[in-house]
Amino acid sequence: MDATTLDTLFRAHARDITAFLRHQLPCPDLADDLCQEVFLRLGQQPSGRGASGTRLEQPRAYLFRIARNLLIDHHRRSQARPADRPLEDDDLPCLACPYAVVPSDPEAAAERRLCRRGLARTMAGLPPRLRQALVWHRLEGVPQAEIGRRLGVSERMAGRYVKQAIVHCRDRLMPAMA
Questions:
Q1: CA distance 66 to 13
Q2: What is the pTM assigned to this prediction?
Q3: Short-list 114, 97, 23, CA closest to 67
Q4: 91-129, pLDDT tens digit by residue?
């Protein structure tokens, strides 16, 4: 496809495709990246032709089909990740303290490491399903419906798992506030 046609299509449809992708994904940056990928794939096609080589009659519909296929590919890749992974030091300051800021002084950094160790011990005490739901929700930003699908439960039950895990961690890490 020639650059002028591609540029025209990008100007006409990129905003709508990005909005569609942002509605489907938890991360706006990922949606922006996939939108770029849509147009890269279109640019690899022969001028005015679709992937099958037929004349491209409705480019907007074709662009949305590419976007949908990229979403499917993304979800498949995310399912291929290990089901359970250890909590890493750099994942989050503290799951139980979602408003914690990244400290810059050594004393605060040491306290943050202690908090992470306590969190890791607390999470180790969670049932596997609750722990996994919490990791997916808080660390990876996976939507509740997707968590439910991955665990084979309803969306509502997935939400309960996340809530139970958060309450468990909060009660053990901050007993004075419970």
A1: 13
A2: 0.45
A3: 23
A4: 444 454 443 444 456 666 666 677 777 778 888 888 999
